[in-house]
Write a structure and sequence with these properties.
mainly alpha, three-stranded antiparallel beta sheet
């Protein structure tokens, strides 16, 4: 049985890849807790840079650099003070 400490470190590794790592759209959707279509829309709008890997044009071959995911997250920050006004 795993200890809580080892479980937490395993979660930290999964939830924070290096900035040069490429991640799948499904992972990004889970990271932001949104649907896949939300991420695909951001990619198609040019808000989230992505590359296609593999043959064909299927959506399963889309990857996004984690640093770009972080930049997208920062650009979408909501000012909490504005919510209370």
């Amino acid at each position: 049985m795993e200890t809580t400490e080892s479980t937490e470190s395993a979660v930290a590794e999964v939830s924070a890849p290096s900035s040069t790592t490429y991640v799948k759209v499904k992972w990004i959707a889970g990271y932001f807790a949104v649907g896949l279509s939300t991420i695909y829309d951001a990619i198609e709008a040019g808000d989230l840079p992505a590359i296609r890997v593999g043959r064909g044009t299927h959506k399963a071959g889309i990857r996004v650099r984690f640093a770009d995911v972080q930049a997208y997250e920062q650009s979408r920050q909501i000012n909490p003070a504005a919510l209370t006004a």
